[in-house]
């Protein structure tokens, strides 16, 4: 049976009665609970104080087991639910539940108030807290460690947690209240049943009839009517409902037609249309929105905008823009979109939609508020369209504009008739023509006049066929200066393939051309003399060989090296040396034809390619050129008020006789040059095949020399130095000998220069000095009289920084008096650095060594050396001794040397004495010391002992 209206009213009264009874019960229960809670709370605080006092006393007296006993005793009380005691580290030390002991208090399966626990520790006081259901109450009190000696509580505290049962006390009080509430409820139910019986028969049936009619109408039956028999208030209500239903049906039909039209318009629109409620809930989502965002309408309807398809960072940024632009302070969210529409204005701006796949789509968004008749906002309508293409075009145009205006290349755009329609800033900067001046003018406003008519005809012919052209072209600036450019011209054609425009791009390549020229100089020219360097020389020589080979011609190549350049460079410095090289280069260039190539390979080495080619080359012509170059270089060079003299040595090779490629021609010319340097008769040499053979021999000798010392191939021979007057031995000159197992006896004249070139001379000189001193020490043990050993030093040894130290260490090692050692040097060994030589020789003489000049008279500036050098002895070269009997000049030299030596109190030794007549001549002129084959040839140490048994004997 359906419940009637009056029955519902009775039921409502019954409900109110029950509600009142229930509220009364609840209030009574709460009051009882509050009183019980207060009573137990007070009791709990007292218990906590007792627990604190008792437990801390146990701790003070070291009776921690008392805590566990007290906790066990408390567990027997009927209203005790839990008692837990923690240590300062938070672990349980005692509990009514033994399984809790040792666990961290937060790990226990009890509902504790962590804040209460921390507050008890921080404030060091007790605290009480009730559960939300008033089932139990927790009391917490700190249990602190204490010092028994001073009875002070410290800050290391644990907590005692005491939980009491509230329901035990309250249940007894509530039992009586429940009984009373049951009686009140039964009375209320009886009254409600009485009211139900009265109202059921008067109202219920007609209300049910109205309800059923309304249900049918809601179900779609628009033609049903409510008909009641009794004319009363319910009948009037039924008539009004019938009239309302009729009007609603008519309006519903009109609204349905309007809605269908609206949806058709919205779904057919090309714009994304999204409607939302005032709170931002999406209520409508058209087809264009689905296409734009990739979501189906059902995926987003009833979801909130902007979370659905907006970038939250952009929403935050737009919120800041609203604040700064309009002073509207909104939080990031839906309000950003509707802040302006809410004021009745249309909001338009560019936004970014986030597609379902994550792509970002720029859109133009327009939002309008929808108002009802009362002026209240019913929702918002958002209309958006994709502006990706527009943004791309804007970016492309912006980029094109930036490139056009900021590129370093000048750009000119003309129409099909070559009238200028636009130029960029670079064009103005490079040419000096302003944009206002240039636009409308012909494209040739910068015409330089440097190119002929044919050049331009070929250029435009290529443009016509290939639609572009690029190349070097000279233009003229506004001020008249012409300059080189690299120009590119492109043709622009329309859809009909007709020419619309020409675009010319060029850049000023003045600096590039200068840089290229400078790079060419750096790469191909010597920076000091500006002559071609080795690279360019090789290229030109390669071309010359190719041309000569093709035409079956011959040509000559010269290698030149300056004599005494190192002396000038070391003596006067590199600046003077560089200036000397520059002047040499100038003289050489003026001495040959322009078609010839003068190059500097490095240092003081020059080359000349004689470019004139002939089928039969005339050696006399080449000789003439060589003599001319030698004479030019032999002339003095005036540099910084200094008259400098240098010579040159020239080596000449002929193509193809002396080589058919660059390498062989250069090698052979270089070989001839070194032969010219070694020759005293001429300053130039033509290459000959024997020179290579000599080079091979030298290389073989170099290889053998490197291993000679290791293989003990060296030995010392000794030649006596004799007092001519009494034929007594004064000393011995130690002479180095090399006996090679295959090459035989090799003269020092051959291997000493090689040792100097290879850097072996110091090691070889040390060997000579040590072995000579060792031999001298052996002789001293057998011969009591004094005599000396003469030891030769080469130029390279004299240049060594460790020479003096090495000699001193050696004589100390062998315990030899330095006065028994004569150091022999030649004039040529001191030419390179006379000041250095003087300093070292003075040190040696001060130590006690005797100094002799060997081969005196064969070098340069001999008298000057006698004056400067700290010498004791002069040795007359054997060439003068040999010819003194027959050559008056050589005899005059011998007499002059003896006279000078006597005036300077110097001893004189005549070398190369071979005959008695020579000995007699020398003795007659006052020379008392001689050395030569007349007395003995150089002998090995083992044979020297035989001299002691002959008439020759040591000085007493």
Automatic annotation (TrEMBL):
Keyword terms: Membrane, Transmembrane, Transmembrane helix
SMART domains per the UniProt record, alphabetical: EAL, GGDEF, PAC, PAS
Gene3D superfamilies: 3.30.70.270, EAL domain, PAS domain
Domain GGDEF: 553-689
InterPro entries cross-referenced by the UniProt entry: Biofilm_reg_signaling, EAL_dom, EAL_sf, GGDEF_dom, Nucleotide_cyclase, PAC, PAS, PAS-assoc_C
All copies of domain EAL, residue ranges: 698-952
Protein name, entry field: EAL domain-containing protein
Stretches that traverse the bilayer: 182-203
Domain PAC per the UniProt entry, residue ranges: 347-399, 469-521
CDD domains found in the cross-reference section: EAL, GGDEF, PAS
UniProt domain PAS: residue ranges: 258-303, 401-441
């Amino acid at each position: 049976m359906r419940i009637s209206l009056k029955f519902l009213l009775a039921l409502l009264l019954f409900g109110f009665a029950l509600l009142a009874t229930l509220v009364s019960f609840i209030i009574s229960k709460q009051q009882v609970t509050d009183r019980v809670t207060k009573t137990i709370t007070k009791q709990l605080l007292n218990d906590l104080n007792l627990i604190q006092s008792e437990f801390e006393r146990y701790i003070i007296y070291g009776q921690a087991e008392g805590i566990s006993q007290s906790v066990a005793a408390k567990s027997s009380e009927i209203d005790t639910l839990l008692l837990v005691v923690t240590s300062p580290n938070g672990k349980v030390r005692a509990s009514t539940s033994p399984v809790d002991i040792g666990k961290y208090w937060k790990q226990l399966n009890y509902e504790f108030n962590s804040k209460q626990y921390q507050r008890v520790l921080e404030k060091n006081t007790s605290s009480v807290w009730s559960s939300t259901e008033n089932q139990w109450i927790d009391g917490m009190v700190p249990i602190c460690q204490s010092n028994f000696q001073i009875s002070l509580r410290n800050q290391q505290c644990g907590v005692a947690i005491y939980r009491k049962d509230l329901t035990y006390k309250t249940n007894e009080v509530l039992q009586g209240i429940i009984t009373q509430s049951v009686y009140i409820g039964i009375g209320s139910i009886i009254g409600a049943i009485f009211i139900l019986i009265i109202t059921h028969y008067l109202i219920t049936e007609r209300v049910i009839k109205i309800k059923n009619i309304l249900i049918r109408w809601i179900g779609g039956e628009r033609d049903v009517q409510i008909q009641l028999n009794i004319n009363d208030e319910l009948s009037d209500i039924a008539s009004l409902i019938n009239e309302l239903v009729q009007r609603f049906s008519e309006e519903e039909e009109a609204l349905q037609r309007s809605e269908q039209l609206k949806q058709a318009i919205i779904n057919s629109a090309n714009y994304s249309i999204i409607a939302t409620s005032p709170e931002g809930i999406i209520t409508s989502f058209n087809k264009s929105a689905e296409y734009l965002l990739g979501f189906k309408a059902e995926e987003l309807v009833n979801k909130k905008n902007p979370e659905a398809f907006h970038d939250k960072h952009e929403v935050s940024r737009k919120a800041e823009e609203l604040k700064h632009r309009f002073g509207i302070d909104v939080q990031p969210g839906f309000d950003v979109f509707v802040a302006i529409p809410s004021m009745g204005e249309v909001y338009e701006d560019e936004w970014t939609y986030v597609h379902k796949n994550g792509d970002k789509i720029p859109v133009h968004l327009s939002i309008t508020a929808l108002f009802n008749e009362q002026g209240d906002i019913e929702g918002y309508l958002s209309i958006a369209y994709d502006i990706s293409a527009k943004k791309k075009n804007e970016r492309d145009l912006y980029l094109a504009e930036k490139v056009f205006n900021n590129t370093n290349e000048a750009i000119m755009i003309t129409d099909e008739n070559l009238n200028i329609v636009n130029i960029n800033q670079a064009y103005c900067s490079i040419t000096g023509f302003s944009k206002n001046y240039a636009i409308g003018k012909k494209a040739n406003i910068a015409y330089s006049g440097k190119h002929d008519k044919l050049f331009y005809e070929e250029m435009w012919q290529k443009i016509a066929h290939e639609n572009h052209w690029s190349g070097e072209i000279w233009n003229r600036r506004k001020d008249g200066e012409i300059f080189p450019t690299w120009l590119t011209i492109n043709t622009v054609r329309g859809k009909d393939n007709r020419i619309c425009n020409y675009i010319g791009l060029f850049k000023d390549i003045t600096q590039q051309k200068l840089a290229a020229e400078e790079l060419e100089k750096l790469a191909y020219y010597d920076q000091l003399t500006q002559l071609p360097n080795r690279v360019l020389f090789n290229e030109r020589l390669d071309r010359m060989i190719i041309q000569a080979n093709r035409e079956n011609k011959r040509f000559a190549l010269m290698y030149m090296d300056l004599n005494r350049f190192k002396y000038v460079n070391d003596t006067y410095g590199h600046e003077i040396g560089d200036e000397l090289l520059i002047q040499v280069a100038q003289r050489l260039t003026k001495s040959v034809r322009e078609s010839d190539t003068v190059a500097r390979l490095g240092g003081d080495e020059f080359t000349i390619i004689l470019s004139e080619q002939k089928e039969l080359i005339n050696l006399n012509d080449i000789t003439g050129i060589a003599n001319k170059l030698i004479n030019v270089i032999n002339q003095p060079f005036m540099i910084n008020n200094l008259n400098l003299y240098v010579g040159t040595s020239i080596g000449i090779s002929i193509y193809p006789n002396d080589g058919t490629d660059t390498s062989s021609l250069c090698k052979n010319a270089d070989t001839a040059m070194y032969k010219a340097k070694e020759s005293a008769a001429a300053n130039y040499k033509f290459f000959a095949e024997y020179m290579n053979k000599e080079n091979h021999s030298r290389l073989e000798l170099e290889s053998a020399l490197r291993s000679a010392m290791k293989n003990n191939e060296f030995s010392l021979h000794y030649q006596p130095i004799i007092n001519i007057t009494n034929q007594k031995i004064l000393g011995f000159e130690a002479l180095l000998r090399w006996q090679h197992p295959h090459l035989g006896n090799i003269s020092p004249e051959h291997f000493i220069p090689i040792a100097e070139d290879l850097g072996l001379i110091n090691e070889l000189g040390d060997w000579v000095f040590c072995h000579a001193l060792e031999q001298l020490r052996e002789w001293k043990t057998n011969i009591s009289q004094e005599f000396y050993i003469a030891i030769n030093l080469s130029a390279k040894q004299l240049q060594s920084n460790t020479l003096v130290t090495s000699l001193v260490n050696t004589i100390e090692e062998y315990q030899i008096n330095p006065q028994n050692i004569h150091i022999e040097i030649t004039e040529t060994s001191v030419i390179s650095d006379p000041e250095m030589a003087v300093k070292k020789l003075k040190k040696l003489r001060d130590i006690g060594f005797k100094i002799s000049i060997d081969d005196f008279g064969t070098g340069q500036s001999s008298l000057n050396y006698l004056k400067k050098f700290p010498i004791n002895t002069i040795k007359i070269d054997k060439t003068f001794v040999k010819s003194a009997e027959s050559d008056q000049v050589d005899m005059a030299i011998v007499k002059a040397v003896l006279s000078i030596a006597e005036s300077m109190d110097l001893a004189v030794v005549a070398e190369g004495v071979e005959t008695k007549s020579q000995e007699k001549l020398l003795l007659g002129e006052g020379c008392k010391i001689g050395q030569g084959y007349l007395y003995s040839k150089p002998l090995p140490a083992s044979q020297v002992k035989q001299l002691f048994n002959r008439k020759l004997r040591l000085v007493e």
